[in-house]
Amino acid sequence: MVISKVNASAATLTKNRTEGSVVPTSGMCVTCVDGCIGMCEIGKSAYRGHEVIYPQPFGVITTAAEKRFPVDYSHFNIMGTCVGAHGIEADSDKAIFPNVDLTVRFGHDKGIKFRRPWIIPGIGSTAIAKNNWEGLAIGSALMGTGLTIGENVVGMDPGAVFKDGRVVDTVDLKRRVELYRRYQRDGYGTIVVQANIEDTRLGGQEYAIEKLGVECVELKWGQGAKDIGGEVKIPDLKKAQMLSQRGYIVLPDPFDEEVIKAFERGAFKEFERHSRVGMITEESFAKRIEELRAAGAKYIFLKTGAYRPADLARAISFASKYRLDLLTVDGAGGGTGMSPWRMMNEWGVPPVELHSLLYQYASHLAGKGAYLPAITVAGGFAFEDQIFKGLAMGAPFVKLVGMARGPIAAAMVGKTIGRTIDAMQVPVYIERFGNSKDEIFVTASELRRELGEEEFEKLPTGALGLYTYFERLTQGLRQIMAGSRKFALEHISRNDIAALTPDAARVSGITYIMDVDKEEAFNLL
């Protein structure tokens, strides 16, 4: 059943008066009463208007869709076996889950190496991203996985310096890149700088390549959360004016005298900064790839969202023709920052459907002998079973899974725990494990040993939170892979998962569970 919560949600801080009796189509209360103060989304829109389009409160939350899609990754189960081993000798003393190899190499020269098959695919200019960057950057670098600096970071930086409309120095982008690099170990992982239209106009990627030594850059067509450009809320008039001068769409006009007066008297408390939508053509795409390579980019990625199938075909075709190094395909419903709530729920191709089409298109190109980049799938992944299913669904083309909300949650929790430790007010729920970093974070002793006392003490607890979450995913994924007898990532196949419903089988092309091994089973009998 497909269910949308259409008129009330925690995301918009709204609820129905008659919560037990709601009209399915409109989401309105069965009896809408004259005299109600307007707790639902319609009611709140009557006095706050466009503000109710977005999840709230902005800056301290991440948000994803509540819609239940017809098919999702829970409609598939992982197939295990008691026979043999792939990628290791079939010996019970050797085929143990700690020996599962989770490293992955990709890029045109296989020069990018990750210790784990996942990447954080775009943490940009929102407050929630900036406020948790320490944890995200350091935790990712220590684990040897990828991290993408998302759109608008240069344009949003009050400390950035521009000359003739192009950036020549930054504070925030420089900090983000250097923080990751400082904790990178043995060349594993990579930091990626993404760009949208405004970033491209400001020369953000050229600056990152030439001044910061960034090797990986990513073009952004969009994401699974929305069909428009990046958006943030700005509570400061001067900053809103600065962003308008840098070329962003800022609503309402921060230079309009009447708007300024309304803001100052508290009629509204936040401006909105919007990015433009892209206008993709093969000619402009080819030109931009040429520009980036001429600027010194070693690896070029593309991220696309949950657009219609022809756009997915366009993305993989361009990525193939222009020999990109990574293509990220993000399914509908995801999101980390500010996206219109209704759009997030009701727009785009859901993950299973999108990733199934992706497999079809990749197979078609591979059948013609075409070059294919490594592929990342994204859209609601958070745990090891989901990572395995995403890799299996797109095997052998999918090399990575993209995750954002899960890692941000882990970094935020780690940061919050650190604050309670410093204040000597550790909550009872946490205090049962102890009152210090070493007692609470299960990976602390390992990191203290690896980094040394002095370096460990500098680690922010947000980074400990992310690293420890990644450690859990590592062991969980190794256990699942060992159960499927796949001891290296390249051995994962579509045959390692089964569809639990005929609909899931029809959409994905994955075998229905009652038909798995049918011929082999009857031969054995």
UniProtKB/TrEMBL annotation:
Coiled coil: none
Gene Ontology molecular function: glutamate synthase (NADPH) activity
Domain Glutamate synthase positions: 280-400
EC class: oxidoreductase
UniProt keyword annotations, A-Z: Oxidoreductase
Gene3D superfamilies: Aldolase class I (3.20.20.70)
Protein name: FMN-binding glutamate synthase family protein
Pfam families on file: Glu_synthase
Organism listed in the record: anaerobic digester metagenome
One of the GO biological process terms: glutamate biosynthetic process
EC number: 1.4.1.13
Record-stated family: Belongs to the glutamate synthase family.
